[in-house]
Amino acid sequence: MTLRLLLLTSALIVAGCGTAADTSPDTVQAQTAVSQGMVTAANPYAVEAGADILRAGGSAVDAAVAVQAVLGLVEPQSSGLGGGAFMVLHDPKTDKTWTYDGRETAPAAATSALFLDESGQPLRYFDGIASGRSTGVPGAVAMLGMAHADYGKLDWSETFNPAIALAEDGFVVSPRMADLVARMGRFVLPRDDNARAYFFVDGDPERPIPAGFKRDNPAYADTLRAIAADPRALLTGPIAQAIIDKTREAPLPGTLTLDDMANYQPIKKPALCSTYRNHRLCSAPPPSSGGVGVQAILGMLEPFDMARVGPGVEGWHYFIEASQLAYADRDRYVGDPAFVTVPIDTMLDKGYLAGRSGLIKPMAALANYPAGNLGVAGTDATAEVPGTSHFTIVDADGLIVSMTTTVEAPFGSQRMVRGFMLNNELTDFSFRPTDDAGNPIANRVQPGKRPRSSMAPHIVFGPNGDFAFATGSPGGNAILAYTAKSIVGMIDWNLSAQDAINLPNVIARNGTVRMEARDLPEEDTDEVQRAGPAQEFGMQSDIIEGLESMGHDIVRSRGEISGLHIIHRLPDGTLDGGADPRREGIVIRVDNADAP
Ligand code: GLU
Question: Which parts of this chain are annotated as the region Disordered (predicted)?
Answer without folding.
Answer: 433-453
